[in-house]
Amino acid sequence: MTQGVLFVHSAPRALCPHIEWAAGGAIGAQAKFDWSPQPAAPGMFRAEICWRAASGSGARIASALRGWEGVRYEVTEEPAPGVNGARWSHTPSLGLYHATTDVFGNIVVPEDIIRSALERSAGDATRMTEEMNKALGQAWDDELEPFRHAGEGAPVRWLTKVG
Question: Global pTM?
Answer without folding.
Answer: 0.88
